[in-house]
Amino acid sequence: MWDAFGFEFVNFYLIPGLVLGCIYALGAIGITLTFGILRFANFAHGEMMMMGGYLTWTIMAIVTALFGLTLHPLVAMVPATAVVIFLFLLTDKYFYKPFRKEDTIKVVMASFGMMLIIRSAVQAIWGPNQLKFVSGIAKPNEILRDVSGSIDLMLLVPNKHIWIFLGTIVIVIALSYLLNKTRIGKAMRAVSDSPDLAHVTGIDVDQVIRATWIVGGICAMAAGVFLAMDIQLLETTMGFRMLLPMFAAAILGGIGKPYGAVFGGLVIGLAEELSAYPWIGDTPLLSPGYKTGVAFAIMVIMLIVRPQGLFKGRSF
Amino acid sequence: MEAYLGYFLYLLSLLTVGGIYALFALGLNVQWGFAGLFNVGIVGFAAVGAYSYALLTTAESTFHLGGFGLPLPFGMFVGMILAAAIAAVIGVICIRLRSDYLAIATIGIAEIIKLVFKNETEITNGPRGINKIPRAWEHFSEERFYSSWPLSWFASPETWESFFDWLPNWWWQPFFAGTVLLVMYVVYRLLERARMSPWGRMMTAIRENEPAARAAGKDVTTRRIEAFVIGAAIMGLAGALFAQHLRLIEPTNTFDSAKVTFLVWVMLICGGSGNNRGAMLGAFLIWTIWSASELVIGGTISLIGNVFQNLDTTILETRAGFLRMMLIGILMQVILQKYPGGILPEVRPASPKADKS
Asked: In this complex, which of B111, B258, B333 lies closest to A244 when CB atoms are compared?
């Protein structure tokens, strides 16, 4: 079974698909939480991810200039996360909160405006051109290659992908601990299920909203940095490119369901990569240029067949 | 005298592009102002209108499909129909769901449309785009138009050639601006009629209180799809005029969602959503601010460059545009929060205010 065929399939389609899926999953967690708890589709989420990548790059550049050290992105990410969370809370306070009592579509509009504001701000500060995030060619991890090669299951996984897998697993475990075991996590789920009932039982909704932005911010930040690590460069359109697949993942998993978002993200990531696999004949099943279309197609099918998502999320 | 001609032509171009944006804003006003449908895929409908017009009316070309050389109004009409058809499909799928889903679906369809135009190089010439799109009036001075009917009925091609050589090279500008403004006026009158009619009042009722409208026996879903389709058709028409104005269209930079979708939204919100006159006023106002600020910022930067000789102003030049975009975005947020009605707030047909005027 593990012939040249399987080798190609696993290493060039399945693993990249899972990596992409992890990135979508982390982004979709933030989207599904804001959609479930604050009840609006946050269009600025992808741009926040992109901003996180740029901030991480800046911290790495500053450290290199001052101390001559090359920081690992995962280390530089920590202070950048604080900045991104601060920005999330700031945008909420000045741009989203004034509309909280009004029709939610106004908040969607405000977030759409925020999307453009953040993107133009990044373009004005860092410039519109691509930046190199990590230099060099990513070589496959040698230990994994030798060990798996010795049992005829050769896996070629670069270190960056191993970091992305580990990071995603850690974040998802931490998130499930937060949502199931802590007081604030339970409150978040309660508000997501029924805001009025949660308010009556004495849950501080404002605190829950802050917590939502913080959790969403951490996930967005991780997704942005992981994406930059994967493609090794930064561009100002990368947040927007992620937006549609992340919405598709959130809808697929069911709005307001973080595990659904993780599952949806993995499905969308795999579907996008596997759509380019030559299933029939030698040519790719779908031209790689149309990868984004796969996520959209899945989303449209879900909206027709099952708008509440696979995990019985909220359907408006 | 030369300088005055320059100002005159600048004014004409402001009116032309302003008029095209006003059409976009009117189309959005039907969707958002009348029916409360949140469409963030304006750029997609514009691209459909522009590309169908371009493919149908250009002269035969080896770079893209056809170049069918069909009459210009026919191209514009097909652009409208196709944009409307795409809107109908999205509408049927998404309108019964909450407005957030429609927003996500429209932004998605806009991206997919651009993706198709970028990837189907056989049909659209991909990222290199389509050029030599005939522009109304100016197209008469092209050989294939003055050597065929109706112009060939009046004079021979040679006479026409010498006539167009004799005309100043900007002769078509007033005519093109006039055509755009005329189309805008006709659409405006039609929409005013629609707004005053029972249909328009039903739209307002559905937007303001959907359960009540439903209880009164109104077919909410069908009415919403109607509004969405009509708005998209107007956007397709505006897209066709946009293609005429530019004469060269390509999928990425021409149809940048920031420059089309977002600017149109700012125009409508600034002018006053729900008010057709407000939509047009907002379009001309924001477009004037947008294009004048380009001149002002450019002048300031070259002044800085002259004062500080050793300063490299190229970075400033490339980034000033993004700063301008950011300021427009903040302007939109401010209007949204402080003046939600816009400059000309909506006037209900049945209210005493409407009776007075």
From this structure: B111
